[in-house]
Amino acid sequence: MNILAFESSCDETAVAVVRDGRQALSDAILSQADMHAIYGGVVPEIASRRHVEAIAALTDKALADAGVGKQDIDAVAVTYGPGLIGALLVGVNFAKSAAYALGKPLIPVHHLRGHIAANYIAFPDLEPPFLALCISGGNSMLVDVRGYTDMSIMGCTRDDAAGECFDKIARALGLPYPGGRPMQELAEGGDDAKYPLPRAKIAGCALDMSFSGLKTAAVNLVHNAQQKGEELDRSSLAASVAAAVSEELVPRAIAAAKQCGYRTLAAAGGVAANKRIRADLERACGENGIRLYLPPLPLCGDNGAMIGCQGYYEYLAGVRADMSLNAYANLEI
Length: 333
Fold this sequence. Notes:
Layout: E1 2-7, E2 12-19, E3 23-31, H1 33-37, H2 44-66, E4 75-81, H3 85-102, E5 106-110, H4 111-122, E6 130-135, E7 140-145, E8 151-156, H5 162-172, H6 180-187, H7 212-228, H8 234-260, E9 264-268, H9 275-287, E10 291-293, H10 304-316
Parallel strand pairs: 1-4, 4-5, 6-9, 9-10
Antiparallel strand pairs: 1-2, 2-3, 6-7, 7-8
């Protein structure tokens, strides 16, 4: 079964062709990161307009790269939330048009379910149930993946996401957007214990997280040093931030997996590309006898293949949408 999949929830336009939920025949992606870098973050209106400009040509490229024609497509899948509403609407409306023109079923896919499904492409042996650590610029949560379409949240951030924390601190340090990779590069060789940064605990909700205090503390360190004309050890601050983020995420992921009785844990989302977090997950899972699945770096960020993969399993579960399908900025997993 060949699924034509669309992803446009933020600043990547992506179109892919996925076969039987596990094989990405193509995955055409156009990133807008350079365009938004001058503003220090994503500008929703610019993102939406760029999606409109790119999506048709990317669809042709995805089909050509896959070596299939329009007549070979069996269904159309699309991210319908959560994300930037204008950006989502571009993908949803284009996917509806494609499904209508081809006379094929339309499958709505949750963005974070797609991130989890990226692991199915990289690891053919991975099957539910397992615990998923979903960490990105807009979301940080622990998900009990009981089945391909049966999921529930074990814990999540109460405010900022881990990726937003990296981005905002990177901006304060004068690093380019997106901030994850520049922060990681800056942290190389830094002392991760030099700056004592807060680790949040939510009373009565041991698996929930909070990154707003960490973000504020780090940004204040930067601003105070600038105002007083003091030298800041930027490398050590970046390393301290990475350590603090990882120490909020990793122990909770291990605890959630044990609470569910699982011996399998999968990471998902753009922040799963962070070296410190990946290393800490590998160490913690090794110490606790948990099998870890870390998606390769190209599958950590937003892509169309993950939507096609999850779309296949949604299709098998009987999930369909008609031409009234809308996009949603906020959407429960």
